[in-house]
Amino acid sequence: MNVIDRRLSVAPMLDWTDRHCRYFHRLISDRVLLYTEMITTGAILYGQKEQLLAFSAAESPVAIQLGGSDPADLAQCARLAEDLGYAEVNLNVGCPSDRVQKGRFGACLMREPDTVAACFTAMQEAVDIPVTIKSRIGVDDEDSYEAFERFIETVAAAGCETFIVHARKALLKGLSPKQNRSVPPLKYHYAHDLKAAHPELTVVLNGGIETVEQSTEQLIHVDGVMVGRAFWNAPWLIRDMHIAMGMGELQRTRDEVLEAYTRYCAQMIEQGVSLHWLIRPILGLYHGMSGNKKWKSYLVTEAPRRKTDVSVISEAREKVKYAH
Q1: Residue-wise pLDDT tens for the chain (324 aa)?
Q2: DSSP per residue, 158-191
Q3: If both were cysteines, with which of 126, 128, 165, 315 could 191 make a disulfide (CB 3.0 to 4.6 Å apart)?
Q4: What Pfam family is a match for this entry (predicted)?
């Protein structure tokens, strides 16, 4: 399935949305749009690009999120991504970390809309797949709706049609990246007003969405929602939102998803991946169920000890009282 459905997507999360997490999420929903972690152009061009860009066709469609500000480097990375089968290239204009700022990319680029437009143009000319932008609504004191709209209009004039809006501003000094995900207040109306003023654009809202009700309510105003931590903590929420949004029926139960992922783990272990790394995405699968704490505790205790033994997963499953 290679058709991109923007109603629902999993946010790119550094150190979290790796290929194993994406494989697991795809088992839950056949339509949710999956993103890689942010990968810098430098890491791809001068690092282990095969390892960084590797993914399974079973994860598709997958969008790659790039971090960078050099148009030529971004274009080269976009070409590599397209050749490997990625369905979309997304430019990060929202990460506020000090390391990212020193590299002159991420949220600080909101102060340079012409640079972002040039980056977009270079990437879009290099590939046939969609190129999109993920941004904040502003940085520091430059957080008026008017400034946000000017940024969007500048990049849209270069041809960008899809914007993923994290509806918080970024504070570049004084807050950690974690604090920047919660301390600046959410201003959903920025995304709503943007869509109303520019109906020709595709606007996807990100930030603070944790329930089915919140997600369906937002679809009244925007084209899609992107969810991050809530999906990590309770991944079955992907299924609930998928169904609530009318994205089609899903047949697999939690246990069937777990069985399929266990088979995947066995394959990955044969390739040298540790079970300790593979169990991270599934820790929240039985969120809210009786025995969930025992399930998680067993996995995090036993997987590091028995790094090649997938039976740890079925043993942990026995701790959960779940009848569906």
Answers
A1: 456 999 999 999 998 999 999 999 999 999 999 999 999 999 999 988 888 999 999 999 999 999 999 999 999 999 999 999 999 999 999 988 766 666 678 889 999 999 999 999 999 999 999 999 999 999 999 999 999 999 999 999 999 999 999 999 988 887 777 787 777 899 999 999 999 999 999 999 999 999 999 999 999 999 999 999 999 999 999 999 999 999 999 999 999 999 999 999 999 999 999 999 999 999 999 999 999 999 999 999 999 999 999 999 999 999 998 644
A2: TT--EEEEESS-B-SSS--HHHHTTSSPP-HHHH
A3: 165
A4: Dus
User: How many angstroms separate the CA atoms of 203 and 221, rounded?
Assistant: 9
Instruction: Please confirm, yes or no, whether 265 is among the known catalytic residues.
Output: no
- Of 21, 77, 95, 119, the catalytic one is 95
pTM for this structure? 0.95
In a domain, 323, yes or no: no
Dihedral-angle region of residue 207 (phi above 0 means left; psi in -120 to 50 means alpha; beta otherwise): left
- Domain of residue 201 covers 8-244
291 and 147 in a common domain: no
Please tell me what DSSP assigns to residue 119. H
Q: Please enumerate, by residue number, every residue annotated as part of a binding site for FMN.
A: 12-14, 65, 134, 166, 206-208, 228-229
Is 176:184 a contact under the CB 8 Å cutoff?
Answer: no
